[in-house]
Q: What sequence folds into this?
């Protein structure tokens, strides 16, 4: 399954702008809170050094694309309605729409770093809202969403059922949580992290259930913090304030700047590769002096000091660092690195670190092929790889079957 990243945050923080900028979609954006109600979906690309550089070949990418030696591999993005404090009690749009995020592997929290929006997304004077509080309330709402799914107001009945049917707690929880893309490994780890492995589920207190929900949420839907609207005057100061309160990684970002750059690139006015710290003007005549000034400002105030608009950086972080993905290139010919139609390095797949060759063939190549699978060959070393071989980042592999 393709990696899916969900976009969350309070109303008007810039979630849809982020989606539109990176997926080149046209979903509705406005400064009025709760513009988005139904989720918006898009496809975007993570950027990684392509193996074509190392092999010194020119490639013919098919399931992805390759520009200047960078391979861009698709992932899914999902933008949902804004979340406000006490959404779990029905405030704002409530939290029913969180179910839209069930398939997400990680969450991007778009924080309005200008501090000019209150918790419900209404405009207030600049700096009046503390972005740190936004981080806290949003995390809490997501954790409570997990808690609701886990206990469903019938914890006693649920746990009694486990005991009488002699089901294991892991299996019972897995059944309950299967709808939000959670596996048994994650449940076992969350039980361990909340020190509830050996405690009788019947005796779990409300505090225990909440602790377990928090640990499981952290493991299965980790939240990455984005300080959006970094283009505004006040943002740098607010970012530094936030860094002094919040110790985790924070990605400064301007969704708006990315959108402007991508639009001019599409129109062939500039050449801009997502994730770059610069762009090239191709056709200055098409730019009014005001537009030229805007682009100059983006370069001087965002691209240079922040090393890009922040969007590509955070997508890569969500994919490689948080979701532990690696990149694998299957080929048919180990000498030319091509498929059977002479396409060189046609496909690049993202798989989770720790994936073994047999599962890769079944899930990414073809489930039928997996039945006839005999072994793999490492195209670099020409060595045979067994079905339990653990894939490594940038492996180039031929799959050998008995058909
Ligand atoms: N200056 C600046 N404005 C931005 C940026 N990103 C979004 N905005 C503005 O913020 C406002 C809200 O943007 P949206 O993308 O609709 O926000 P949202 O989070 O999807 O809002 P809801 O759908 O209502 O929850 C719009 O006026 C955007 O133009 C940014 O990076 N910089
Ligand atoms: Mg929106």
A:
């Amino acid at each position: 399954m393709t990696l899916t990243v969900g976009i969350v945050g309070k109303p008007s923080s810039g979630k849809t702008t982020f989606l539109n900028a990176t997926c080149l979609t046209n979903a509705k954006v406005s400064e009025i809170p709760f513009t988005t109600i139904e989720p918006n979906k898009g496809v975007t690309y993570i950027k990684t050094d392509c193996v074509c550089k190392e092999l010194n070949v020119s490639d013919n990418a098919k399931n992805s694309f390759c520009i200047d030696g960078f391979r861009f591999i698709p992932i899914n993005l999902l933008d949902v309605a804004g979340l406000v404090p006490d959404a779990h009690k029905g405030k704002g749009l409530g939290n029913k729409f969180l179910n839209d995020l069930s398939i997400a592997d990680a969450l991007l929290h778009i924080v309005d770093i200008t501090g000019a929006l209150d918790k419900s997304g209404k405009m207030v004077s600049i700096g009046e809202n503390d972005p740190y509080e936004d981080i806290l309330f949003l995390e809490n709402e997501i954790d409570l969403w997990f808690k609701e799914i886990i206990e469903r107001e019938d914890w006693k009945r649920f746990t009694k059922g486990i005991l009488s049917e002699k089901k294991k707690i892991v299996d019972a929880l897995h059944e309950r949580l299967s709808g939000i893309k959670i596996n048994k490994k994650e449940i076992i780890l969350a039980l361990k992290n909340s020190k509830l492995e050996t405690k009788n589920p019947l005796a779990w207190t409300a505090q225990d259930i909440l602790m377990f929900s928090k640990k499981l949420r952290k493991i299965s839907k980790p939240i990455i913090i984005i300080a959006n609207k970094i283009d505004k005057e006040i943002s740098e100061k607010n970012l530094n304030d936030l860094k002094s309160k919040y110790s985790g990684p924070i990605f400064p970002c301007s969704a708006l700047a990315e959108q402007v750059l991508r639009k001019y690139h599409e129109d062939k006015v500039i050449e801009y590769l997502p994730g770059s710290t610069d762009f090239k003007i191709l056709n200055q005549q098409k730019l009014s002096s005001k537009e030229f000034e805007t682009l100059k400002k983006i370069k001087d105030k965002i691209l240079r000091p922040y090393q890009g608009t922040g969007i590509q950086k955070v997508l890569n972080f969500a994919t490689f660092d948080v979701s532990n993905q690696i990149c694998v290139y299957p080929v048919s010919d180990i000498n030319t690195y091509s498929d059977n139609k002479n396409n060189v390095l046609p496909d690049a797949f993202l798989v989770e670190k720790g994936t073994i060759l047999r599962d890769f063939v079944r899930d990414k190549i073809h489930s039928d092929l997996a039945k006839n699978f005999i072994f793999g060959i490492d195209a670099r070393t020409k060595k045979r790889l067994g079905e339990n071989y653990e894939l490594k980042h940038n492996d180039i592999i031929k799959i050998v079957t008995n058909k």
The CA atoms of residues 12 and 121 lie 5 Å apart.
